[in-house]
Specification:
The chain folds into three domains: 118 residues, no CATH class; 266 residues, Immunoglobulin-like (Sandwich); 150 residues, Serine Threonine Protein Phosphatase 5, Tetratricopeptide repeat (Alpha Horseshoe), CATH 1.25.40.10. It contains 21 helices and 25 strands. Strands 1, 8, 9, 10, 12 and 13 form a six-stranded antiparallel β-sheet that branches. Strands 14, 15, 16, 17, 19 and 22 form a six-stranded antiparallel β-sheet that branches. Helix 13 packs antiparallel against helix 14 and helix 15 runs antiparallel to helix 16. The longest helix is centred in the N-terminal third of the chain and has 16 residues. It is globular, with a radius of gyration of 34 Å.
Length: 695
């Protein structure tokens, strides 16, 4: 059994260095519907033509394979299912019933199928009217129907409204009536007055069919200012809103995420995108390293229930790419969660917040994080653009964290915690909703204004706006904050009315604006807001070699080798037995063509591992080749074959070693075997031909 804990969030922190799935950019390469396979064209142009949104249609037409289209159709219906989790999709069943009803009753007397008529379209969109008035057999009024609807406010429609259909010329299809475009005169078989004199037409229609005249100028009961002979503009808006009503029933974000992640998540996850609140904040640690702090708060957390035990496993995968699309940083984590009955009761009605942080070198990047739920096969995502500044002397201000409470929290052995400001833990919610009973805690950092004699040159202004109207402004000096660069400022919200607000913080020097940051928040009418249950772990102390290794690897991927080497050397020196550290340094030395040290780094690691990774064999063998030791390289590559099997990369390297050793027969054998695995190797084919001639 799966239990759905709606609106949960949790906080977690860990360190992962494995491979990750990245969010691909969306390429809108839609194809015309007529070029789709017939069954998909019919689905798009007939089955869902009235209920599919423009975004969903565009995504569907961008898909290139039938399997993707089938999965999208599955996602389309799942995101409209009012009772997800059971086998019956009531929305789809009702939608197909409406199509069948329209074809059966509304196509009579017309060359069209019923679903293509105006009545069929409206019936498919809105369903059965509350009541229908039919006016037939009145010689001076065209056959007409008045459909009355109630209870459609969830689709952005009025509490009650009418729609009118009339049979123009008395035969064929019933057409949807417009008070403005048609007017009362269009409902009468004979009207010889001024076609623009709606009032006269209304009065004449009133004598012929009072119930029809009552809806001829306004489709909305009780609407004022329409009995002066002017058709209702609100009725025109109503007709337009009816056409777009189905789009209000579902968020189309899932469709965009399906397109972005269809090649990256497993098939069983691809249709189950859920929304989330998220927050990203960049801060500099005491060691002058910038960390990216993030929080993901999924709209629901589904758990398996086994007696009194509730559990799931979450997968967290992230990538940071630069402007050229090069992966600079990546991580992967598995997060097992388990709760007993008492814990479930504590979090059942609370959001859950997953929080983490990682170091990042200066530059401009895109952050993509994918969160998957193993139990429900749901996924959600976070995407942000990041700017990590250089650690220079000019003043800098980090982004704002808006909290609702804070308390002292002494760090454990200098270990790091997400979103912590010095010795203060700030409690926040990613959706930035506050009550009037809360204090608004502003947490951020200012760098470059530390010397005490300079502090009075600077001013910090806090301005709070409601609808661009300033409602509060205070001024501070950096000297007012003893824990610089960490800044904490508190506002009481007791005097603020529930509304949407914007806060702006400005750093000025001698009255001149230098920097500013903004954030938005909402103050709710509610007295109490359920606050997140936060799951988090402490990170390693700031001097842990992991940080040097991660930052060095990021710089290596940016090809900033001179900056990367001291960091990778530092990590390896701290733990020479760490395979990741040794391999990271060896890769950099290979790229820098400093081959001599690689054997002394990797040979001990190779000997100490029961099952060394392929990359270690490859780097060590390449180093031996570069320093002119093909016999030792050959020994390493042959050991790799025993451990990991044959591949073209190893066979080509083995062939080169034999060739350098003058063992031409063995070289020819290795390269020939490589060509059997992959015929598309022109350089290897040429070598084989040359050796065959010599042989």
């Amino acid at each position: 059994m799966i239990t759905d804990l709606s609106s949960l969030r949790f906080q977690l922190l860990g360190w992962g260095l494995g491979l990750v799935l990245a969010a691909a950019g969306v390429a809108w390469t839609g194809q015309p519907a007529e070029k789709l396979p017939e069954r998909f064209r019919r689905w798009l142009e007939e089955e869902v033509v009235y209920i599919i949104s423009p975004v969903e249609k565009e995504v569907f037409q961008s898909l290139q394979h039938d399997r993707e289209r089938e999965l999208f159709i599955q996602a389309f219906w799942e995101h409209r299912d009012p009772t997800p989790g059971d086998r019956d999709n009531e929305f789809r069943r009702e939608h197909l019933r409406r199509i069948n009803h329209a074809d059966r009753y509304f196509g009579r007397g017309t060359p069209k199928p019923g679903w293509k008529t105006d009545r069929g379209r409206i019936y498919i969109i809105l369903g059965e009217p509350t009541s229908i008035q039919r006016l037939e057999g009145r010689g001076q009024v065209y056959p007409s129907e008045i459909w009355f609807y109630q209870g459609k406010t969830d689709q952005g429609l009025p509490p009650a409204f009418n729609l009118v259909f009339f049979q123009e010329s008395g035969v064929g299809e019933y057409r949807l009536y417009s008070p403005l475009a048609d007017g009362p005169q269009a409902l009468m078989t004979s009207y010889f007055g001024d076609p623009m004199d709606y009032l006269s037409a209304f009065e004449e229609l009133k004598e012929l069919a009072p119930e029809l005249s009552a809806v001829s100028l306004s489709l909305i009961p009780g609407e004022s200012n329409v009995w002066q002979g002017r058709p209702s503009l609100s009725s025109e808006l109503l007709v337009n809103r009816v056409e777009s009503a189905p789009q209000s029933l579902v968020s189309t974000q899932y469709a965009r995420k399906f397109l972005e992640y269809k090649d990256l998540v497993e098939v069983e996850y691809s249709t189950n995108y859920i929304g989330c609140d998220s927050l990203v904040n960049i801060r500099r640690s005491p060691s002058r390293v910038y960390f990216v702090h993030y929080a993901i708060e999924p709209e629901r957390l589904s758990l398996n229930a086994d007696g009194s035990r509730y559990y799931t496993t979450l997968g967290l995968n992230g990538t940071v790419t630069d402007r050229q699309g090069i992966v600079i940083h990546q991580f992967e984590k598995s997060i097992p969660l388990q709760f007993d009955e008492s814990q479930i009761e504590q979090i059942r009605h609370r959001p859950v917040s997953l929080r983490d942080m990682f170091p990042l070198v200066p530059g401009r990047y895109k952050l993509s994080i994918l969160l998957t739920n193993e139990v429900s096969k749901e996924f959600t995502s976070l995407e942000r653009d990041l700017v990590i500044p250089e650690s220079v002397g000019e003043p800098q201000m980090t982004g704002l964290l808006l909290g609702y409470r804070m308390k002292p929290d002494v760090p454990d052995e200098n270990r790091l915690r997400p979103f912590q400001a010095g010795g203060i833990q700030v409690y926040f919610q990613a959706n930035r909703i506050f009550t009037r009973q809360d204090d608004l805690i502003l947490s951020y950092q200012i760098h470059g204004v530390v010397p005490s004699e300079e502090r009075q040159l600077f001013e910090i202004r806090y301005a709070l706006f409601q609808d661009d109207r300033q409602v509060r402004m205070i001024s501070r000096h950096p000297g007012d904050y003893p824990d610089l660069p960490n800044v904490l400022e508190t506002f009481s919200l007791a005097d603020f009315q529930p509304a949407h607000y914007r806060i702006r913080i400005t750093l000025l020097a001698s009255g001149r604006e230098l920097l500013w940051e903004e954030a938005r928040l909402d103050i709710t009418h509610e007295a109490v807001v359920p606050r997140p249950w936060v799951y988090s772990k402490l990170l390693a102390p700031t001097d842990h070699p992991d940080y040097a290794y991660v930052l060095g690897t990021q710089l290596f991927r940016k090809q900033e080798w001179e900056k990367a080497q001291p960091l990778l050397e530092k990590a390896f020196s701290a733990e020479p037995s760490n395979l990741a550290y040794g391999l990271g340094l060896a890769r950099l030395l290979l790229a820098a063509r400093d081959y001599q040290r690689i054997p002394e780094i990797l040979s001990p690691l190779l000997d100490s591992q029961s099952s060394p990774p392929f990359e270690v064999y490859l780097a060590l063998g390449q180093a031996y080749q570069k320093v002119g030791k093909p016999d030792e390289a050959l020994e390493v590559f042959q050991a790799a074959v025993q451990q990991h099997g044959l591949n073209t990369l190893l066979l080509n390297a083995i062939g080169e070693c034999h060739y350098r050793l003058g063992q031409l027969r063995e070289a020819l054998s290795a390269w020939s075997r490589s060509l059997e695995l992959n015929r598309e190797q022109p350089a290897i084919r040429k070598l084989v031909q040359e050796l065959t001639v010599k042989k």
